[in-house]
Amino acid sequence: MQSPYHHPPYHRLTEFVPLSAEEMSVASRWLTDRRRLWRGKAIRHEGEAVNGVFFLLEGWVGSSLLLRDGRRQIAKVHLPGDMLGFPSLALSHAGETLEALTDVTVCSLPNAAIGRIFEELPRLALGLFLSTQRERVALMQKLSWVGATSAIERLSAFLLDLHHRLEAAGLTESGSFDLPITQQQLGELLGLSTVHINRTFKSLDETGFIARCRGRLKIDDFEGLRRLAATSPPEFAGTAAWTRLRGSETFRKGTQ
Question: Is residue 16 pLDDT above 90, yes or no?
């Protein structure tokens, strides 16, 4: 029987490197320290001490930064299976606030455990490293949207990327998915006012490429939406590029 950790929301743990039974056992221990938080609650505030990272088991989380004038900029929307707070590992105090955009369940992974992974389980460490590079690609894409595209281009690109990520987590059905974040939060993410987000959604509704109803959004015409989008979701290498890593010990010897 296949390990349950090969299925969502654990898909991000094996998206680049196929893990051994030992490595999956280590990963499963992350899920024991669970916290349930309600919508609007902070998992960790910007400026707090960095004691580790978090695994998002259920719900949506926003990574945001507070500007000097009090405005908030959401840098990333995290979905089930994502690791939260990795960028702040290089800092003494957190550089972002992690806020529950819906009710969420998260698991904590302390700094000491991360250190042990890099010392003892290099394949798992490599998988985590490559996943953080995926996050960097996502931020590069978002920067290009906000810096050089129209509202309809960036919203279309965001919806395609969101569907791509939710589909990998098993959270879509025939192009349809929950969209529980507010238009204000979308504006803070995409660098648009709430009024502009509302008008852009109405423009997309009129194209017939999407349909919205009671907190759900359905993409009816993927090709049409791709023609509007500033960028398409990137194609990552996946496990095929790393299948030569048969075991942690083999990989360790090959790097000496």
Answer: no
